[in-house]
Write the C-alpha cells for this entry.
Amino acid sequence: MGFSTSDDAAIYQLSDELALVQTVDFFPPVVDDPFSFGAIAAANAVSDIYAMGARPLLALNIVCFPKTLPLSVLAEILNGGASKAEEAGFVIVGGHTIEDKEPKYGLAITGLVDPKKIVTNATAQEGDELILTKPLGTGIITTGIKADCVTAETIERVVAVMTALNKRASEAMVRVGVSACTDITGFGLLGHLWEMARASKVGARIKLSQVPVIEETWGLVAQGMVPGGTHRNQHYLRDIVTWSPQVSEDARLVLCDAQTSGGLLIAVPAHKSSELLALLGKEAWRIGEMVRDGEGRIEVIP
C-alpha cells in the first residue's frame, strides 16, 4: 500500500481473497505492575491490525530487559502479553530478547484480511461522521503515575482503558461498512485525525464537548502533568488546527495527548453511524465530522 498515507499496518496481498497484515510496536513501561504493562503493550500492538479491519493470526515477542531485575518480572510481563493474545485469539510463536538498561516490551503481529474489505486511513469522505471508541487522557495520567500523584482508583481506570482490545469495535465497523479508520496512539487524537484527513484530502471538525476524556485527566493537566510527546504534538499541529477561542489551553493539550493503546477513530457515512453506535453501545462516541478541505485542516469547536 506504500508509505504515503501513514497507514497503521503493512498489507501484502497473497491472492484475490487473502492478504497479510503486518505491524510491530514496543515501548518501556507506562505503569508499575509488570503484568498490566505486558497486557497494555500487547493490546496496543494488535490495535494496528484491528484498525485495518483485519484479524490477528500470530505474533513474536520483542523484549529488552536489564540484568538488574529478577526474571520473575519478565515472566509477569510476558504473562500479561499472553493473556491479551489469548483474549484476541492469536498465538505468540516465539520472539527475541536483548539486554538493555530499561525494560521494553511489545509484539510483531501478523494478521489476515480479505483485500476487498481492508479499511485504510485514506478513504474518509466529506460528510462522514467521526466515531471514537476510547476516552482520551492516558498519556497525561501515566505521566501523573510516574510522578506518584495518581490515586489507585485512577490507575485501575486507566489500565482498564489501555488493556481493552479494539477487537469488537473493529468487527463492528467491518460489519457496518465504514469509510476509513485509524487507531489513536502517540500522535494523539488530532495528530492521527490529521493523517486521516490529509490522506483522504478532506478536512475535519471536532466538537470538544462530545470528546470522551477520563475525568481525572483534567486535574492532572492543571498541575502540569503533561508528557513531552503531547507538547510536541500540539506544536507540530500549530498550522493545521484552527481552535475556537472558547477551547482552553488545557483542552487543547488533551486533544493532542500522546495516547498508549487508544481507541479506534472511525469515519463512517452519516446514514450508517447510528447502526455502528448501536453495535458499540457505551463504548463509542460521535465526536465530529469530515468536511470539505483538500489540505486536511482541522477545526475544533466547543
